[in-house]
Amino acid sequence: MLSDADQALIALLRENARMPATELARRLGVSRATLQSRLERLERRGVITGYGVRLSSEHEANLVRAHVLVTVLPKLSTSVEAELRRIRDVRTLHSVSGNFDMIVIVEAQSVADLDKLIDRIGALDGVERTLSSVILSTRIER
Question: Average pLDDT of the chain?
Answer without folding.
Answer: 93
